[in-house]
Specification:
With about 120 residues, the protein is mainly alpha-helical. The chain is built from five helices and three strands, in the order ααβααββα. The protein has a single domain, classed as Arc Repressor Mutant, subunit A (Orthogonal Bundle), CATH 1.10.10. It is about 65% helix and about 10% strand. It has a three-stranded antiparallel beta sheet with strand order 1-3-2. α1 packs antiparallel against α4 and α1 packs across α5.
Length: about 120
């Protein structure tokens, strides 16, 4: 019998990519990017889910450092926090640069092989 184990992400970048790996969370980030700070209830409206589900998504985003929470009375307002996104962008950029360079070197090597075979 298969039992589900919780996965714990210890590194900030792991938490960021985990948070970005879900479409609902990406939509929440887009809403915040387009409209600025929003209350949890407003973030829930476009989705056909219960409030606890949105709360869970918001906690994942918050743990990843992608959103910040302000409490206004009994309501929770969320806004984007770009630092974690910048770290993910930097990592992606480093990988892109590595692979672009590697593919260029491979292409140059293949060109020399083609010239040698002529």
């Amino acid at each position: 019998m298969y039992s589900q184990m919780a996965i714990h992400y210890d590194h900030a970048l792991d938490r960021t990519f985990h948070a970005l790996g879900d479409g609902t969370r990406r939509q929440i980030l887009s809403m915040l990017a387009n409209k600025g700070a929003l209350f949890a209830g407003d973030l829930r409206k476009p989705f056909d889910v219960a409030q606890p589900t949105i709360s869970k998504h918001l906690k994942v985003l918050e743990r990843a450092g992608l959103v910040r929470r302000d409490v206004v009375g009994r309501r929770h307002r969320f806004r984007l926090a770009a630092d974690s996104m910048r770290e993910a962008e930097d990592w992606i950029s480093q990988q892109r640069n590595f692979w672009t360079g590697t593919l260029k070197r491979l292409d140059a090597f293949v060109q020399t092989m083609d010239e040698d075979s002529v």
